[in-house]
Structures are given as structure tokens and as C-alpha cells.
Specification:
The protein has 7 helices and no strands. It has helices at about 5-40, 45-55, 65-75, 80-120, 125-155, 160-175, 180-200.
Length: about 200
């Protein structure tokens, strides 16, 4: 079919689409860079900020989807925060989005570590740094607890979930086992229970 629009208008539309795509990729990069740059204490301490940024502010995922991303991120190799960022980026903009979100999540830490390694020697042995980390560890514990309480409202919804949560907690505390196996066991149990309920309904 013949296109009656001028070539200039077509080119303008293409440029506008590219600008929108680049803006969306920049939002992915900057959002995860901000989370990675201003959250201390590792992947789990970043969960509250991920919840606020991804679910509440950007609405890139629902709370149920975030629970799924956390579970998958725990089971797959690597840091849970980076894995979750990759999943969300891929959902939004495919492979370019996954790359933008992943690079954004590691960029601040990379810059900070390189700066510390280049400027300061025996950084961790400095008294002021040790005191700072002591205070940070307390706050990190609170942030992780806050994330757990928020996830509990959506994930522990019946008696079976309470049992799974209690058993998983006890196993993780008293048994020397990788969390991956606990997550996989819970997944298998969930599938079995779901299949059993469907069979009863039929």
C-alpha cells in the first residue's frame, strides 16, 4: 500500500519513538542505580526500596509479580537484587531493558569499590568505618524485617502457607542447607497441593 505521508514525517516519528525508547531505558538504568547506590547491607536490604520504586512508584510490576521475582532471583545464580533487576528490565523493554537494569544495579557499587581501592588502603580497618558499619548493620536488620512483613501480607494467606513458612524458617535456622533447596521444595509442595485441589474439584 502507498504511504501518502511525507518522508520527513516518517523520519520524525521514528526519531520520537527512539527518544521514548531511550528515555524508558534511562529510567530503568537510573532507578536501579539509585537503589544500588543508596542501599547498604546486600540484596535483602534492598527489597524495601525495590518494593517502593518498582511496585508503588513506577508500577513496573505488581506485588505478586515481585514475590515471584524474589523467589526466582533467590534460586538463580547471582545476587538476588541484580537478578530481580534483570527480570524487571526484561519485562519492560526486552533484552535492552534487561541490560539497562542490570548495568544500573551494579554501576554504583563498581564505582564506589574502585574509588575505595584506589584512594584508601586498609579501608575496612579504619575505626570510623568499623563504627559506621556497626550502625548500618542495625538499620539493615530493620529494613529486612520491614521487607519480610510487607511480603507476608501477600504470601502467607492460609493455614498451609503458615505451615510452609514455619517449616522453612526452622529448616533454614537449624539445618545447614542452601536456600535454593528450600525454595524448590516449597515450589514442589505448592504444585502438589494445587493439583490435589483441582482433582478434588473435578
Amino acid at each position: 500500500p502507498r504511504n501518502d505521508r511525507p518522508n520527513g514525517e516518517n523520519a520524525g516519528d521514528i526519531r520520537a519513538e527512539k527518544r521514548i525508547a531511550m528515555k524508558e531505558l534511562w529510567e530503568l538504568f537510573s532507578s536501579f542505580a539509585r537503589i544500588g547506590g543508596f542501599t547498604f547491607g546486600g540484596g535483602y536490604a534492598m527489597l524495601p526500596m525495590l518494593q517502593k520504586e518498582v511496585v508503588e512508584k513506577r508500577q513496573w510490576a505488581t506485588e505478586d509479580e515481585m514475590l515471584d521475582y524474589f523467589a526466582i532471583g533467590q534460586c538463580t545464580p547471582g545476587v538476588i537484587f541484580i537478578n530481580t533487576a534483570t527480570f524487571i528490565g526484561y519485562k519492560q523493554k526486552g533484552i535492552p531493558g534487561a541490560i539497562a537494569a542490570t548495568v544500573g544495579s551494579v554501576f554504583p557499587s563498581l564505582c564506589i569499590v574502585m574509588f575505595i581501592a584506589a584512594v584508601l588502603k586498609n579501608f575496612a580497618e579504619l575505626a570510623v568505618v568499623q563504627h559506621a558499619f556497626a550502625g548500618i548493620r542495625v538499620v539493615v536488620s530493620v529494613l529486612i524485617l520491614n521487607a519480610v512483613m510487607g511480603l507476608r501480607k501477600k504470601s502467607i494467606v492460609d493455614k498451609l502457607c503458615v505451615v510452609i513458612a514455619a517449616v522453612s524458617f526452622l529448616v533454614s535456622v537449624w539445618v545447614d542447607i542452601s536456600p535454593v533447596w528450600i525454595v524448590l521444595a516449597a515450589a514442589i509442595l505448592g504444585i502438589a497441593v494445587s493439583c490435589g485441589r483441582e482433582a478434588k474439584e473435578k
